[in-house]
Amino acid sequence: xxKKNVFRRLIRTSPLRPLQDHMRIVCQCVHEIPLxxxxxxxxxxxxxxxxxxxxxxxESAADEIKNxxxxxxxxxxxxxxxxxxxxQLLKTQDAIADTAEDIAGLLVARKMDVPEFLRETLxxxxxxxxxxxxxxxxxxxxLDELLAVGFQGQEVSKVxxxxxxxxxxxxxxxxxxxxxxxxxxxxxxxxxxxxxVFWYQLIKWIGNIGDYAENVGDxxxxxxxx
Length: 226
Fold this sequence. Notes:
Structural class: mainly alpha
CATH topology: Methane Monooxygenase Hydroxylase, Chain G, domain 1
Mean pLDDT: 91
Low-confidence stretches: none
CATH class: Mainly Alpha
Number of domains: 1
């Protein structure tokens, strides 16, 4: 009960702060993805399992914040941000953590070998997806400043520039993902057909992290436009 009361007071102080706390944990989940694939390349399945557990713990922590925020967010905020906008942002952020957990879960459920021809671009995609998540988190951290100036003035221009930069990073993740898929199908006769299917899904999921991160930026842009 005391924990719930603290959360209610936090929301009354700023309903944006739990959203920011949630995004920080989401990024912690994504930061493990390159480490996960490094362990996979090294053939260290025990490390893959350990990283999966870390991601699962962090995703659970993010879910706890999500559920608390959904349960205690008042219908009327008396702010230039409505309840629906905050919940939509929360949902988009949560999709990032869920995707990171899906990636880790698959790599634990099915032992995957990383073909040499995928490794370099795979790591580039994983790291660039982290960059996209980090950039979206920086945008969420600016919400307090936007609120303070009533979503007007130079702060708006600053955040719009940040959203534009995020779009550029996400475009790079798209390009890397397309390159990986092209390479995968070029060499599909060299690996197990079932592995081709799973690698296609993994590449798609890693790319989705960048897509969801960009969606976070787009939703902040909509807040500004309103």
